[in-house]
Structure formats: C-alpha cells, structure tokens
Design goal:
This protein is of the alpha/beta class. 29% of the residues lie in helices and 23% in strands.
C-alpha cells in the first residue's frame, strides 16, 4: 500500500501535480495578491462599460455597480460606522446585493451574509453572535426583522427592494412583488433607511486602507450539524481562492480567436449569501470581467428556464438537486447551451445519474468541485477539460494540500477511507469568537478537519465517500448514504432520494430511504430489487418511505438531519 505522508507535519508528496493541466502552476504567487477591495476597484476601472450583473431583465455596468458601492460605503462612513464593523446583508440575488457587498468591502467593513429565509430565532443568533451593527434586508423579509428587533442590538436597518438600481423598471418589479404576487408582507421598522435613497447619495467616500489580513466575511456554516458558527474569512483567504480558481480554470476561459470583446456569462442561481456563489459566481467573475445573470428564485424552475431561454450562457454553477430539476424539465431542451464552456457543481455530492441527464441535455459534463465555508470555499476541482463526469472531486488547487487521515491524525494509505483534511491560504482564520471550536477542527500541522470521509486515488484525485456523521452502521458494517442514494437516483422512476440510518434492534441501524417518485407506479419492492443489482445486501434499504418532497436548505442541499429529527419526533 502507498502512504502519501510518513507522519503528521511531513512535507506532502503531492502526486496530483503530475496530472495538472500544462498551463497550471503548483502555487499561486501570494506576493502579488491584492485585497477584495482592490479587486472591486480594478474590475470597475478595467471594464467600466461592460455589463456586470443582470436581474429581472435589467443590466447594470461595472461602472454603475462601482458607483453604487462607493455610495453605500460613503453612507456607512457618514453614519459613524468604523472599519472592521460588521455589516449584515439579508437578500436574495438582486442587483442591490453585489452593490452592498462591494461597498462594505471598499469601506473596510466585514460582511455577514444571512439567509433571507431565516426565522427570527435564527436571525437573532447570527446578528448577535457576529456583533453586526447594521443590517440591509430586502423588504420581502423585513417582517422577520421586525419580529426579531426587540432582541437585536443594531444601530441601523436598511430596507432594500428587488427593484433597486433598476430605474423605472424597478418600479414595475416592485409593484408586481407587492400588489400582484404579494410576496411583501406588512412590516413596521420605524427609523429604518431606504437603500434606494442611500445609493442615490452624492457624498464622497473617504479613503480606507484595507489589508490582506483584515476580515472580509463572517461566513456562517449552515447549521446542519449544530449551532451555526461564523467562519472568519480574511481578504487573503478569499483573494487567494479567487487566484487559485483563475489559475485552474482561466486557461479554459480564453475567448474565441479574434474575439477580444468576448464576455463570459455566469448563471448565478445559487444565492450569493452562500460561499460557493459568493466566491465562484461573484468574486471570480469580477476578476475576469464576466457578467453575472442573477436568479432571485431558482426554486421556480419554469420561471428559471424562461430566463435561460432568452439568455446567452457560457458558465453555469449549481448543486445536484438544481441540475436534476433542470435536466428533468421538458422545456430545458429549448435552452441554447451552444456557448456553454463548463458547468461546475459543489455543495453536495453530484449523482452520476444526474450528471448523465445534464450532459444529455447540454452536451457538457458536470465539473465537480469540493469545498466548505471554512475554505473560502474551493479546495479541489476536476479539470475543466474533462469530457465525462468523473465521480471524483478532482485535484487539490494550487497551493493546497489535502490529506486523508484517521482520528489520530495519521495519514491513510491510498484508497483507504478517512477524514479529508485541508491546508492552504484559503483556509479560514478560525471560528468567530470560538477558539475552542477552532481547536477542534485544526490539526497541529495546520490542516482543517472537514468532517467528510474520502479516499485519495493514486493520481491524487479525491473521491468523497460521505459525511462522517451521516454514516450508517449496519451490524458493524459501514454504509455510506451517498452510495445508496446514487443507486436509487439511477432508477428511472425516482426523482430524488435521501438515505439515513434509523435504530434497529437487530442490526443496530437500518438503512432507510426517503424517495420522491417520478413514476407513480413505482413500489418499494421494485426499488429494493433494483438496489440488489448494485449493492450488497446490508446496503439495500430495509425501509423505503415515499414522500412528496425532501427537506432542503435554500441552496438545495438535502437535510438528512431534518429527516432523522422528523422520524425521532414524538407523534402529536
């Protein structure tokens, strides 16, 4: 057996470097890194007239985005907020979001991204834990802020609308939201400010010196494994990850011969408050001068596809459930994917059956990557020139070491499962105000313990097995839900599936599958027989529960924990 490290702290062998594309170096040049504030300024100066973002059919340029960002930063300064103060943003993908993110970064503030679907309890925890002084919230969810307000310590609340930065068209968008779709509930936030008024301000922004080690984001973990914690991401962390992505993918993004005016368009359906979209669809696209096609509600698949039908698309990002929903919709074949360079997936394991459906529709394989909030997020990714879905999470990025370790921090042999550990400039500075939690996940030699089980292949690629806490133990045998879900998803009668372990008096735990049907005639016996063709007996689901839907995060990640809690809850 081959072991990649002889002992914790030993210099890594990095077998993956031999399989890098020829144009990709093994390290980024950290001496040339600029801050994210530098990135915003340089993009707006380099591509002033290019479209930067599109939302609800309205496009704004890099120059317009830059002016809005400076206006927001100037307002924050005028209100007495100081460099390093935390500014929380609670919005879906609308034009106001990048403007306020960029403004906060220019002013040296720390952005706290908040899921707009949070309850008042969840919102209160995140705002108070982060010590946020100001909150920008879209009016659709302002009633939640009103409910939480007695428990908050905010100095300012700013209310945004879906139509901000859209001119006259914005009035129409807001009218539809308020009067026709009625997605704006009544709220009362006396003393709050209007973002539209703020962005129209003429006050000049005072110069601010922002450093690479200043905190850019407090990126809270999803809370799927406990109380949400804020991953402290510095400008160095995120800027490094942007450069890593540029080196890994940039050579595959060259414009067609003779097309110096060529611009990439990234379909940004994943919410910008999620780290995947924040870095890959926003900051990385800013770096290459691409346009972000902002999708405010990707759960509305018919509406999403309607937008895609009228849009030029060169890049796509998503998670398994989104690709699955799109690929199975009958109208997806009316979308023009002729300019699509590649589609990137992350956030959760991509199923082979879903990847096949996507390629059948678009002609392009899904390029799967891997990362976490704590790694800014990208740690590894497949080569962009693959022709078929690989089923791996690819190779570690430049300047990144990845190791598979046991509980005692010893490296596992090639092909042996263990915990995926990551070291690189993109790894967080720690959890905000939680040194005890930070100590639990950082090794003595600087690796971050992810809690994910994986194996390293001989060429250095890594294959995800599952979350350590999701593993099912059947009579002493390990069963990884991802493997079983992959088989279930391959059945033509299955739309979606999730697998968990439930207590069993005979085997300790029993493999239990929750399935959403595509074919109403499908039976549990049909599925078990299908699984037996690909899985050994103890991996075949003992129980199969058919449901109308699966619980998911707003990003589309299936919540196995919610299924376990649902089953464990006493009947009322």
């Amino acid at each position: 057996m081959t072991v990649l490290h002889t002992a914790p702290g030993a210099a890594p062998m990095r077998p993956w470097l031999a399989h890098y594309p020829a144009a990709v170096p093994g390290e980024i040049d950290e001496a040339k890194l600029g801050t994210l504030a530098d990135l915003v300024r340089e993009a707006c100066a380099s591509f002033p007239n290019r479209p930067a973002f599109e939302s609800f059919g309205k496009t704004i340029s890099f120059a317009e985005t830059g002016r809005a960002a400076q206006a927001f930063a100037a307002w924050l300064q005028g209100q007495g907020f100081r460099k390093g103060d935390r500014i929380a943003l609670m919005m879906p993908n609308i034009l106001a979001y990048p403007a306020t993110i960029f403004g906060a970064l220019l002013g040296g503030y720390t952005v706290v991204n908040i899921n707009p679907l949070y309850t008042a309890r969840e919102l209160t925890h995140q705002l108070n834990d982060s010590g946020a002084r100001a909150l920008v919230v879209i009016e659709n969810f302002a009633h939640v802020v009103e409910e939480a307000k007695p428990h908050l310590k905010l100095d300012a609340i700013v209310v945004a609308t879906a139509g901000d930065l859209m001119g006259f068209k914005g009035s129409i968008v807001n009218f539809v939201a308020r009067k026709i779709k009625k997605v704006v509930k009544p709220f009362a936030l006396p003393g709050s400010f209007s973002l539209k008024t703020i962005l129209a301000g003429q006050q000049a922004m005072a110069p601010v010196t922002v450093g690479l080690d200043d905190i850019a984001f407090l990126q809270y973990t999803g809370g799927t494994t406990g109380v949400a914690k804020g991953a402290t991401l510095t400008h160095r962390n995120v800027a490094s990850n942007v450069e890593q992505c540029v080196l890994w993918l940039g050579w595959a993004l060259e414009p067609p011969l003779g097309r110096s005016d060529y611009q990439h368009v990234m379909v940004t359906a994943l919410p910008l408050y999620h780290i995947f979209a924040l870095t890959c669809c926003c900051m990385f696209m800013l770096r290459i001068g691409a346009k972000g096609l902002l999708i405010a509600n990707p759960r509305d698949i018919p509406g999403f596809i309607k937008i895609l039908k009228t849009s030029r698309i060169t890049l796509f990002s998503g998670v398994n459930t989104l690709y699955n929903a799109l690929a199975q919709h009958p109208e997806i074949r009316d979308v023009d994917f002729s300019e699509l360079r590649f589609a990137v997936a992350g956030g959760m394991a991509t199923q082979a059956a879903v990847a096949k459906r996507w390629k059948d529709v678009t002609g392009r394989p899904i390029v799967e990557g891997y990362g976490l909030s704590e790694t800014s997020p990208v740690a590894s990714i497949n080569r962009p020139d693959i022709t078929e879905f690989t089923g791996t999470i690819g190779f570690p990025l430049p300047s990144t070491d990845m190791s598979i370790r046991d509980a005692e921090n010893n490296d596992m042999a090639v092909g042996e499962p263990g915990e995926i550990c990551i070291r690189g400039p993109q790894v967080m500075a720690g959890y905000w105000n939680r040194p005890d939690e930070t100590a639990k996940v950082m090794t003595s030699d600087g690796f971050f313990r992810t809690g994910d089980v994986g194996v390293m292949l001989p060429d250095g690629q890594i294959k995800i097995v599952d979350r350590m806490k999701d593993m099912v133990l059947v009579s002493g045998f390990n069963v990884y839900p991802n493997e079983v879900e992959d088989v279930l998803a391959a059945h033509p009668g299955v739309l979606e599936a999730a697998v968990i372990g439930l207590p069993d008096e005979h085997s300790g735990e029993a493999v239990t599958a929750f399935v959403v049907k595509k074919d109403e005639a499908l039976t549990a016996d049909d599925l078990r027989a299908f699984c037996k063709e690909s899985l050994t007996g103890y991996k075949v689901p003992k129980q199969i529960v058919f449901r109308e839907a699966l619980p998911k995060t707003n990003v589309g990640k299936v919540l196995r924990r919610a299924l376990r809690e649902e089953v464990a809850a006493p009947e009322r």
